[in-house]
Amino acid sequence: MLLAGRNAIIYGGGGAIGGAMARAYGRAGARVFLAGRTPATLSAVASEIRAAGGSADTAVVDTLDEHAVEEHAAAVVAAAGRIDVAINVIADADVQGTPVLDMAVEDYLAPVVQSVRSKFITSRAAGRHMVRQGGGVLLFFGGAGDPPRDFHLGGLQAGFAAVEHLRRQLAVELGAHGVRVLTLRTGGVPEVIPADVPGRAAIEASITGQTLLGRPATLKDAGNLAVFAASDLARTLTGTALNMTCGAMLD
């Protein structure tokens, strides 16, 4: 198995994207540490991983609270010996559907401020342990891209772009310590769109229509790519984004 004997923290592991990655990590042999704010969803994912023969632990952690994140990272090291992989897929507090000129300043900045704070805090906590142990992988999910013409996403992509700069900076500063830093660049995963969202069919059609392959990435794709990125098969990759947009965004 690609991740046998490794320990992975997934912040937001109870959500759709985080859960898919957690299950994939469990299948690949990693011991998975699920962190988030909702005990019920974390426990549900952990139960699935254990039922499939994997190992999973859960912890309620607010990723905007640096002390809580630091304490959790230390607890993981105390329990497992090291942190090999850390990925933060906590949902951003974004306000969508409103044109920029009609938005409040706080609504536009919310996904920028909260996303950067959350990703910085979790990356710093895990990164400190990775530097001490001489290696590890920090993963981000999102990536920069052109604003869509059909939908108003507010400050969501501004937050993605800010996190991308954080990823580059971390890759430069931590590379000498054996720490790789990557983004899983998404063009949208329709499966995560709630069924009751107004215009859901149009959103899914837009995501699919922008791809070159005529199909969008799935949750299974996200999990599989997260496993690859964290494995030794990707040992030459750092400071870059792995494009899982099915051709919606060209490099």
UniProtKB/TrEMBL annotation:
Belongs to the short-chain dehydrogenases/reductases (SDR) family. CDD domains: SDR_c. The lineage of its organism: Bacteria, Bacillati, Actinomycetota, Actinomycetes, Micromonosporales. Keywords: Oxidoreductase. It is an enzyme of class 1 (oxidoreductase). It comes from the Bacteria. Coiled coil: none annotated. This is SDR family NAD(P)-dependent oxidoreductase. InterPro entries: NAD(P)-bd_dom_sf, SDR_fam.
